[in-house]
User: Fold these one by one.
Assistant:
Number 1:
Amino acid sequence: MVQDDLFFSNGRLGILNSDAVNRYGERFTIGALLQAFEGTNRLGLPTTLAHDAHRPIGWTVPLCIYLSREIASLVGQTYLAQDKNAAIELEGLYRQYLTYKDQEQFKPYLEEFRAALGPDKFDDGFRLYLECAAILKSDIAVAQFPSIFSQADDDGLIDLASLSDFKYLGAGVFQCGRFCIFADRKFRRSLSLANNTNFFFLDYFVALSDSGVKKRIAIDRDLIGYAPSFKVPIELEYWWGPKYNDDLSHISAGVTRHSSSERDRLYSQIEFTDFWWQSRKGEHIFEAEEIRASRTFSDLKADDAQKETFGCRYVHSIVNESTGLIEHLDGAIRTYTEEEMLARLDQALPEVGRKLKYKKLWRIDGKIKITQWKSLVHHFYLNNSLVGEYLGIEKSSDTERELPIELLGTSDALAAVVPYSISDATGIITGVTFDDRRSTLLDVDVKSYDTYKKPGSPAVYWVRNSTIEIVKLLRKQGLAVHFDDSLWVLKFKDRYIDLPVFELKDQAQVSVVLGSLRLYVSCLVSNSADTVVNFSLKYPLDAEVDVTISVVATEKNMQAFLDHACSGAMSLPTSLSTVEPFLDGVKRLNAKSPGPCPDVFGVCMKTGLVKCLRRRLGDEFDISFYTDKETGVLMFNMKIPKDKPHFLAAMKTKGLYPILALRIDSYDCDLCGGNYLLCGCTKALDSAKTRISKSTPIGTYWSDRPDV
Ligand SMILES: [Zn+2]
């Protein structure tokens, strides 16, 4: 659980990953989600724009594993840097994080890598973790594989056919024995070693059939990797595969410029892209160049502003005019200084001088099919949607997905204010979150995260009155329960039994608490109370980690959950390794439920709990209380604002109600005549009846299960 008082404000909930099949046809198991949670729980992870390490925008903290009948998700909270100071602080934090990550990932391989490479080469190299543990040192790859580099052409490119001793691992990494070499670092986003390679392009390029073509590529001279540490990079961004028609004829001749919209530029950092077709000596020549809006990072030492350069992707191709066949295609980076860039912004592509710093990255010669040609160009220009636009594919709105997503406003008032609404058909909703171990004083600590705040006074924590029943049942079982006197006891006039977090001293109390909850819920079921029950249980998994399990279900489903949990058919986890079997057990219980589930964000809280959190009626509803003269019952009047007609509609047709919340000041027990908040009688075991003798109305809340 995290508090949202980090230096960032405005945290947003988001699904970091889920077990739904993504657009690449992959799915993550619950176990993989748990692993991702454990791996990032303590540090969280930086959030960047367009997977670019040089563009951190915030920090994401995983909150919980959320499990409903429909989906298992890793839910997190993203904090965006809100102002310049936060952005500066974020950059510092992010650098520390990257260094730490590099070291941590490198560490397990350090000794074997050093032994394999030899201390003389290893020790004065710079250690970093790319697709695998790697050493950065001038010409280290050349020293290790001299024969490869001696075959390089004038542009420094290496024929893929000469890499026959190497196995392609993916993402531009080639393995030979225990070592790897890497595609040139200018294949990476922002040309930076801090980023992934453009594996969309590289994987496609390497996989292209060799027959009739010669493929050449730039290999990074200064990097050697350690093959056993290789991991396939994953970017959960959808870069679509292009669908083109089969000719180039519809592409207009001459110079064409496609400029980015404001929003696209923010994402892609590209001002515009120029395309140019010209005819020269029986050849049709194509050139394309993108112009970046921000600097690139290929020169590690060029940190100061004076050395800021703009590396721009450039493509060149030759089509034979008499045969109509494409004979050649290559891709490069053309680098502009700041001064040159200022001039370039006012120039068209044909006017650009040829003196620019230039690094060829790949070329292909021979019979290239048009579809291949278009795919190579499209993939090389990863995240540049202007190229797809020019090549005649429809711009996909998916590329905009990664921008921070605002939760869309909903016209459904019920979904907006009772987003946790469920039925028997929903099944059981469960959340699991982890914390650093924190011990409790007594056997059970009743911990509320629910606050009530009146303008001008400090927030107070409250529990629902049903909590008193559970506390009494636990005490009857001999447990020492800490229930803070300062907690307000509230009664809501609806049928959501939202219980607080029961923090347990150790695992020995788990079965006692489950037994008491089971007794309580079975009373609800036998009275057909038609309630929704929500509780959370926090207890130590081991000496370092606490787990919190929260559950939301209708009383009937909650009974089934507790029956299974108490009988051992679906035990609550007792260690990190038994969390997954527990969640699988809940999944099986849910298998028979056919109904819709609420939106994840309607039930997941920033605390990592899964909860039914009531929403108050806003001031605009102008509530006024009065006592009915005949019955003496407390009533209230409300107004529906003109701009919220959907609330009236939801009240008329969808069962949305405003309900009253009261603070219980005095609670009489009819059995012993004492104060029920303090006496030992219970409803479940002693059939006690209670009467609220003094209460204070504290507000009105939305509900779809009013007391009837
Ligand atoms: Zn009593």
Number 2:
Amino acid sequence: MSWIDDIHEEVHELDAQGLRRRLRIVDLLGGMRASVENKDCVLFCTNNYLGLADHPHVLERSQKALFRYGAGAQASRLVSGHLPIHQQLEEKTAIFKGSEACLAFPTGYMANLAVVSALVDEKDVILCDRFNHASLIDACRMTKAKFMVYDHLSLDDLKKQLEKTGKYRRRLVVTDGLFSMDGDLVPLLKLMELAHEYDALVMVDDAHGTGVLGPTGQGIIHHFPLKHFPAVVVGTYSKAMGSMGGFVCGSQLFIEYLLNKARTFIYTTGLPPAVCGASLGALEVMEQETSRVDKLWDNSKKIRVGLKALGYDIPRGAGPILPVMVGENEEALRMSKRLLEEGILIVAIRPPTVPKSTARLRLSVSAAHTDEDITKLLDAFKKL
Ligand SMILES: *Cc1c(COP(=O)(O)O)cnc(C)c1O
């Protein structure tokens, strides 16, 4: 038996444990609707929080950029792939986030890899929340820095760990803002005060906060009365902005440092013009239609209240990410299947994305959900 057979065997083992992942075609029908396995359904599992992925202005902006500049950037940004539209996008993003400067990457994943490996090396230590997004965990593992994990959102545990870091040159605290699978929020003000006491820098991944938090969706920084901008804020164009790409916000010199050092920036092709156009369009809509953020929170509240009234176990938190805790993998899969029969798409999130025995239905809300969609969702949960 060659060892590829062992690999094949592992797929069968995943299947047996209810952990096999499969691709399924989701045919988007506009708004929050889609067709899945010939069944029309409402999507409650996208990150399209503001409904911008098919907003007419976003599409028009994208199309214009496509016809002006062509399909691709044709080279790394540092070679000849830095187009005017990249410059515009980064300037506009920096203004939106309230930072000095910004650098865009092909994905949020790559932005996280870039930042962590640029900031620390073998003389340094990283303190990482246990439930941070996989891209942050991978970023921490990629460096030679000492990697320490603290309990989810526990400032007490973080403090304990910080006390052990005296021998390191630099301390970096890395955290999600709005946690992607649990929907809870880092107490950023207190975390930054604590980090400051130990001369540690804070890096926040605002992937789910951008477009969601703060009065007009600028993100986590505008949600808290912070006196200083954190050392680095990472965000994505791929969630609320409905497009693709990641970005890093920080000081002008840090951004220049990154573009000199970050391998995931230097050795890859610049974002395609049509994608930059879409993100610029999304930023413009976010400036003009700030009521979308209010609508998102109203919808989230309605759904939280509705599901709690039906007796579902929803952890604390208030935003648009709502984990309906189930526990066992098979049960989560069964519920997801039943929901689809009722015309609701919510996928089962299982280990290793979340800890063992905490399989869940991760429900995410959008400003584009209508009252009818919400009624349909609650009716479906009632029938489960
Ligand atoms: C989605 C996500 C990313 C990765 O962003 P992509 O643009 O999809 O690569 C990074 N961090 C968090 C917290 C995320 O949820």
